[in-house]
Request: fold
Amino acid sequence: MQIAVTFRHMEVSNPIRDYAEEKVSRVKKYIDEPIDAQVVLSVAKKIRHKAEVTLTAKGITIKGSEETSDMYAAIDAVVDKIERQMKRYREKIKDHKPQQGRDRKVSKTVYGAESIDEGHPEPEIVRTDTFDVKPMAVEEAVMQMNLLDKEFLVFTDASSEEVNVVYKRKDGNYGLIVPHAR
Reply:
């Protein structure tokens, strides 16, 4: 776990840095992937102590911020908030376990652009991948897409058993492609 502690409008304090690193390192028990943590500690008007934490791990970003009259209390409060968010996130993942036995296989083929542009009768295949398409709800598909940091995700709708595609739009919203039989 990589933890970077930044001090703003206050003197660098090794005891506070050590305390923040120790507290933030507690959250790694909730997620297996490597975690990067940014901790920003700041003081405003000598009475408002603010602690901000940003965790990034494999496509997931969790942010928290707390402000109190004591820096140690602010660190405790923000780490508690982050832990609650991580627990809630982990429970969400557990609740969205795919149903077994209904997986589909999909192949993805990448063609060379030059072979298509030059009008060759057979396009040149660069790479072919085969992967399972798991049955899941649309909400889980969006969550998985964000977790994997992808622009789109092909999945099988758990209720209709149809292959669907969820994608991230340029305006920040999400789109869903659902095939309809003629």
